[in-house]
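Sequence decides. Consider this:

===
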Amino acid sequence: MQTPLVLHAERLNKRYGRRVALTDCNLRIPRGHVVGLVGPNGAGKSTLLQLACGLIGATSGTLSVLGSSPAASAAHLARVGFVAQDTPVYASFSVADHLKMGAWLNPSWDAALAKRRIAEVGLDPAQKAGRLSGGQRAQLALAIAAAKRPELLIFDEPAAALDPLARRGFMRSLAEFVNELGASAVLSSHLLSDVEQVCDYLVVLCDSRVQVAGPVRSLLAAHHRIASNPAATPAGAEVIWTEHGHTLVRCDAAVRPKNAEPVALEEMVLAYMSRAAETSAVPSGSAAVSR
């Protein structure tokens, strides 16, 4: 029996005129994970999430979310909660007005959950959203998304503009919501500290392409740091990046060299990002050289 997928992309492409946002994106993300989607600015993270929410359409390829086309119906939309980068709220609406609007728009709205979470983060129901701090607006947007009781929560760098204290509070609330709802989640962020805090699945997106994807523990177990010399690289190992006298490789446990050292999440992600950046900078037909 196949594990149900929260997101399934096959040869997914998106172009904006001449600009390529996603190229041959292939992903199979099982349900039940908190997925960290990381990569540099302009890598295609927001494009992928907007495609998943049905806000834009693909140029070619296929994408299914929770087993259906994105935004296939009103019922499908109710199964997905989305918090955008600017945590959009209506400045002239009070906190209570936002909850009333959420109840009117969502048939599965959990009023008790919304009110409880608003109280827990100290929001005044009578306060206008335009007078809330950035952290408070983010908490309001998160509460609205979660009170839909969705099966999937999608976050597009929602804490990007928050100060460290507000960011920590938001990430804690995010983890609590995912646990309470039993939902899957996809979190886009350029800060690896966010991913390490709450995510158990990783997707690295660079230069419009998926570089690596999988459960965090499995990926870390498969990547190793070795000395940079031909004799140290085992047969069957994939060389990811070489720098400062060390090479990061990906290989099975059966061929792992004895002198291999474990790597941290940040080191692994930066290796893939560095390889992608160097590859994209090399003219077509030229060979890339690690350094």
The first helix runs from residue 45 to 53. Residues 214 and 246 are 24 Å apart (CA to CA). The domain at 5-206 is CATH 3.40.50.300 (Rossmann fold).
